[in-house]
Amino acid sequence: MSYELSPAQQGLSDQVRDFADTVVAPAAYEYDTLRSLPYGIIDQMGEMGLFGLPFPKEYGGQGSDYFSLCLAVEQLGRVDQSIAVTLEAGVGLGIMPVYRRGTEQQKQEWVPLLASGKALSAFGLTEADAGSDAAGTKTTAELVDGHWVINGSKQFITNSGTEITRLVTVTAVTGQSTRGDGSIKKELTAILVPTPAPGFTVLPAYDKVGWHTSDTHPLLFDNVRVPEANLLGERGRGFANFVQTLDEGRIAFAALCAGAAQGCLDESVRYAKSRNVFGRAIGSNQHIAFKLARMQARAHSARLAYYDAALKMINGKPFKMEASIAKMIGSEAAMDNARDATQIFGGYGFLNENPVARHYRDSKVLELGEGTTEVQLMVIARSLGFAA
Fold first, then answer.
1. Alpha helices per DSSP H over 90-124
2. Residue 326 belongs to a domain
3. Which of the four, 37, 200, 230, 274, has the lowest number of CB atoms within 10 Å?
4. How many CB atoms lie within 10 A of CB 132?
5. Does one domain contain both 174 and 270?
6. In a domain, 1, yes or no
7. Secondary structure of residue 98 in the 3-state scheme
8. pLDDT at 127
9. One MF term from GO for this chain (predicted)?
10. Where does a domain end: 237, 260, 288?
């Protein structure tokens, strides 16, 4: 299997890299300080077709593939993880469930709008007692007079409270049954909730350590009523469907991680060549050069891991294990490179205006989001035949 990019793929990567360097990076510190999503930049990303990359042209997409999305996410992740995750979650968690499982009417209604970047969609899965453990889901949806009546809450939901959020896909308990051993099995179902809606409340944004520009909120559902036709996919298939959504999403998330690792390396190489101490560049010191070499190895490994998972996915091959490997390797590479980059920069690396300081704050969540490192280890162990 060749990992060499096609001319079209390389062209896309170069285009997004140039956009990231000339538009996103110069504004990153300002918006990070303001803790505000830069809608002008999101609009430009929409005009570039980034939100529509993996979708057919008949639905307003670019007719490309998921790997192309990953290439774009990686380049944005080099300079601003918040912007990168806005794209990654907007497509992988927002649009993709509708495209994969929606009725033709649902796809025609939502995919072109969301693929344009003029609106964002969120995926409401996580709760206080539910995330990786979907059995802990407490949000309910009851079918009453042709409408789903939704009650409950969600937390840590990306893109859920922006000025252009128009849809939230919610997983809810729609029934239950008793297993042979007497335990209760919850029936989980995915339902589309257009926003705003009566009874739907976006609670105040979290005060996060990092990802300050990314929009993240808890959500409250108080007798929210949506038509029965807003069922997404089959009733009771919510668990299986969200597992597939997360498997795919981890690949794009891993691309973000690779970009973050590369961004830290790029900044550190530049600084190591320009910063002089005792009459010579600090990069001439072996311990700095070796640190940079390790950073290069991590970024390279992270990139190869997500390439492998993405290519397996778009070629219709099993990719669940590879996605978890890519996500785990990538998140650890990003965190380790951020730590080393901050050390190389010394005191300058402790200033928030420095990109490596932002990567240092941002990268920790990469080991937590879309399944913690421990969850990835569990998935990998199970692929080896162990009941982890």
1. 96-101, 104-115
2. yes
3. 274
4. 14
5. no
6. no
7. helix
8. 93
9. acyl-CoA dehydrogenase activity
10. 237
Segments forming the whole domain that contains residue 159: 121-237
Tally of CB atoms within 10 A around 293? 12
Total number of domains in the chain? 3
Distance linking the first and last C-alpha atoms of the chain = 31
- Read off the tokens for 210: 């990092």
Each residue's pLDDT tens digit, 80-127: 999 999 999 999 999 999 999 999 999 999 999 999 999 999 999 999
Shared-domain flag, residues 37 and 169: no
Tell me, what CATH number does 88's domain have? Answer: 1.10.540.10
- DSSP lists the bridge partners of residue 157 as 217
Contact 175, 46 (CB under 8 A): no
* Judgement on whether residues 167 and 302 belong to the same structural domain of the protein: no
Shared domain check, 211 and 151: yes
Q: Token pair for residue 5?
A: 């990019």
d(CA 89, CA 244): 14
Q: Which of 161, 105, 171, 80 is nearest to 134 (CA)?
A: 171
For residue 388, is pLDDT > 80? no
Read off the DSSP letter of residue 127: B
Confirm whether pTM is higher than 0.90: yes
Distance CA 241, CA 136 (A): 17
Q: Are both 201 and 304 inside the same structural domain?
A: no
Active site (annotated) includes residue 248: no
Two tokens at 45? 């990303």
Which pairing describes strands 200-202 and 276-277: parallel, antiparallel, or unpaired?
A: unpaired
Final residue before a domain boundary, out of 118, 150, 175: 118
The full 3-state SS of 263-320, as one line of letters, equals: HHHHHHHHHHHHCEECCEEHHHCHHHHHHHHHHHHHHHHHHHHHHHHHHHHHCCCCCH
Nearest alpha carbon to residue 17 among 78, 82, 85: 78
